[in-house]
User: What shape does this take?
Amino acid sequence: MVELERQQAQQWLSELAASLENWRLVVVSGSDLFAGVMVWTYPGVMRRASSLADLQGLLGGDPATTGTTGAPTTGPCAPRRPIPQQLLPVSSDPPGSLDPQADLLFFLLCDDLPDGEIEHALALLQPIAPERRRVLAVLGDNTDRQRLQRLQERGVDGLCTQGSCGQGRIYTAVDLIASGGTYLDPLFRQRLQQPPRDGRVRCVSDLTAQERSLLRDVCRGHNCLEIAKRQGLAPNSVRRYLSHTYQRLGVRDRAQSISWCVAHGLVSPADLRLIFSVEEP
Assistant: This one.
């Protein structure tokens, strides 16, 4: 039974690859695991950009000047790292190998880039005529309702959860979108259909796992750059996540967020004394 299902899946993927022959699929993801799963299962050709710099290079832009396209401008752009040869047979594609004026381009934008977020990648794709591009955004399962709405307003054709990888939903979304339709992950559809809430956090259980992790690092005294390194996020992402979390807590800054965490039991006063203790000389 398992072997039969595997054969049916392979046949479906082969038919999908044939129907998308005119599309150039590009996985834009900082995660080697995500890119690997997509490439190893898809029988057609995929290109990969592991950063905004890679993406801009493939589109023919200068990876050293991402600030001109709406990408982050604080600090130097992350250096282009080699695209792993074992992931893609087209890893040696030269800069500018995609022609935005002639090619039909399908982008799978994953929210894990080392030098930006999906919103920054969308800014790079903005000059491409809408009829020549399709965009599927792959987001964390905890993405809030407001951001989902913003991405829909920016013209994203589909929204998938990262947890969908390996379940067939991403390829189903690709098939629908390439045929002129749209796709919305069931989890995100449910979230968007819920009545708007004020978003305020009233107890620790209202926090997402990511918010709890970020707040604990704040209470440990780490700055945004340190938190980004500890959690494998882009510094700009950490700043945005913390700003959103502070807004949900109803606090203005780091000091008030630490007070909230102590008052609501996320960390104890003893933890803070241990963290910020200074040895006597």
Notes: Residues 2-193 form a domain with the Rossmann fold fold (CATH 3.40.50.2300).
